[in-house]
Amino acid sequence: MIDVAVLTLSDKGYKGEREDASGSLIREMLKGIGAEIRFYEILPDEKDIIKETLIKYCSQVDLILTTGGTGLSPRDVTPDATLEIIDRQVPGIAEAMRSEGLKKTARAMLSRAVAGVRRKTLIINLPGSPKAVREGLGAILEVIPHAIEKIKGDTSECGTH
User: Rounded distance, CA 148 to CA 112, Å?
Assistant: First the structure.
């Protein structure tokens, strides 16, 4: 079982002005990999709040998925907050999501999403739109259990499947 926290970063969502369709979609998509959402929050696009929340959940879950705040708008600070608290990046995850998105739209290259590890927790930034979440998370979903095993200290050979 993979324990998960889902954080939706959206000023409008936080104020109740927008429904969080992406958070619901993430919940549905995770069912296929034996993951259970333990925590779910909608937060404003405030870097310090995002950082504090990421740090808080890193001691409680194996995986944190964020949705929203990965673009170029001045309020899009999710990747910046994530980079400030992770111990090491996992660039292939973000690259795979962008690569999948580029098959559909050139705008995917504008995503600043990152992925990384803090202690024993994998953190992945997903875009905010449900369509982009479906494409991005779909591209990486099958490797998440293996990544979590490795982060937790599994020493088996990665090449054997």
Answer: 23
Please check whether residue 9 is in contact with residue 19, taking contact to mean a CB–CB distance below 8 angstroms.
no
- Provide the token pair at 49: 């709040």
Domain 2-151: which CATH number of 3.40.980.10, 3.40.50.620, 3.10.620.30, 3.40.1280.10: 3.40.980.10
Residue located via tokens 């259990």: 145
Predicted confidence (pLDDT) per residue in 61-92, tens digit: 999 999 999 999 999 999 999 999 999 999 99
Q: What is the dihedral of CA 111, 115, 118, 123, to 10 degrees?
A: 90
Which secondary-structure segment (H or E) carries 84? helix 78-85
Distance CA 124, CA 97 (A): 10
